[in-house]
Amino acid sequence: MSLLIHAPNVHHGGGRALLMALLNAIPQRSGIALLDRRLELDRSLPDHLEVLRFQPTLRGRLAAELSLARRARTSDHVLCFGNLPPLLPVHSRVSVLVQNRYLVAPIALDELAPKVRRRILLERLWLRHGLRGAQVLVQTPSMASDVQRFLGVPARVVPFMQATAETVEGKANHSPHDFIYVASGEPHKNHRRLIEAWIELARRDQFPSLCLTLDQQMNEPLLRWIDSQSRTHGLRVVNAGHVTGDAIGALYASSGALIYPSLMESFGLPLLEAQAAGLPIVAAERDYVRDVVTPIECFDPLSPVSMARAVLRYLKTPEPTVTPLSAQAFVAQLLLAKDAQEEATQDHTARG
After folding, report:
1. pTM (global) more than 0.85
2. What are the pLDDT digits (tens) for 132-190?
3. Could you tell me which of 33, 11, 13 has the C-alpha nearest to residue 22?
4. Which of 155, 182, 193, 203 has its CA 20 to 30 A from that of 43?
5. Is the CB of residue 194 less than 8 Å from the CB of residue 259?
């Protein structure tokens, strides 16, 4: 029996981290990986793993699908790692790991580029009509619920991740970065509201440092906007660029806390990585967060003010809340204000 890992569309981000962990875990028997040519492979891959690479084009994807259909035998197990089942019928047992929430939830696509919207709409149809009895795997209970509602099939919850980073304790008071946000630059990652929250903090004379991990080339417009806002408001925001492997662990070790404002995730791998590294977590009040960690503070990810207040609570400098007056005191102040306004009007008339 062979295990065939079908991942011709995975090459960066959390998907890459999970895929590399999986490839390195394949046991000492026949294993075949059908991979995106853009994927940077670790040198530690097992020798017994046969690797096939495909171009990230329509022709390349069709070649990968044909290769899978030809190689998969009845006794084999195919794991489709890139959200989509085989395009062509295969006679093996098939499992599909669904990690893209856009494909299994009624999420508006307005903020996405037209090309991305078209791709997601096509992939939704592909996933819905191409399962052919395949087992659906997800990493969290909330993703399983979305799969059940959207696809009408049960999903098995089987979370996994790469080896965890070493726990780092007692460093929050002298970390170079007060907060880190490990995320790519897609709209749902919510970077703009995060920066707006940092602007809210600046208005309150609070300037915590923030480290981002945005790819410079892929996110140039977003980074230009962040740089402009940082200069205008004096924000302490740095971008470490796209980082992987040991560099991620080093960033966690140099940070005081993880802030995670993403609007949606299928898994939220950085939440688990930060928890393993001993970092406090300040995160969106979303189901995907509660699926995997218990944050120290939560916020509404649609509200920069809510985000800023959660940061202030974490920093032990919360804003004072309002103290309601009694109805009698309110009426008394109202009358006093009226009297003061009348006196000011009279004085103005007398001077006139």
Report:
1. no
2. 899 999 999 999 999 999 999 999 999 888 765 444 444 444 578 999 999 999 999 99
3. 33
4. 182
5. yes
